Amino acid sequence: MATVTGTSSAIVAGLTAAALATVGFLGHRAAANVPAELHRPSAGDAPAALKAPRDKDHPTALPGRSGEGTRVVYSLDDDRVWLVGGDGGVRRTFRVSPGTVDPAPGAYRVTSRSKRVTGSDGVPVEHVVRFASVDGTTIGFSAAVDGSPPVLDPKKRTGGVRQSRADGAAMWGFATIGRKIVVIP
Known about the structure:
This is L,D-transpeptidase. The protein is of the alpha+beta class. It has 2 domains: 2-33; 71-184, L,D-transpeptidase catalytic domain-like, CATH 2.40.440. Helix content is 22%, strand content 29%. It has helices at residues 2-32, 165-174; strands spanning 71-75, 80-84, 90-95, 106-109, 112-118, 124-134, 137-144, 160-162, 180-184. The longest helix has 31 residues, at 2-32.
């Protein structure tokens, strides 16, 4: 009788170990294959998680530690965007007016775009380029069709980062699906 119980315990222990190993393996594979559009930034992804150095003599110069390659760089502190080509050259830079919700510093990808919609503040907007979500609030660049800046209500969660219509058109042409967006402090 002792042999049967000992054998049963060994079988159960072996099956449990195999199940845990399988779950661990599948979890690792799933984590390694998360699509870019579902990726959340981490400290390792953020080329500029620390305050990126600024050129005090040239405040519109691209900050250091803002990533590499073709990308959009968005500075939370400066309310400024840079469209950067593959050679590291700035194609365009401009000021923006953020909503009430900011994304965390880090690297993102453009996940969706809309030619024209109504913004979360009720204003018709165009050239919408979305790249993040914070607690259910979508973050993206857009331009008000009437050219107006956002009217911020601190009680309302808005993620629209407004730009001029001309800058919005430039962003629309540059920031296609999958384009890297680097958010810096």
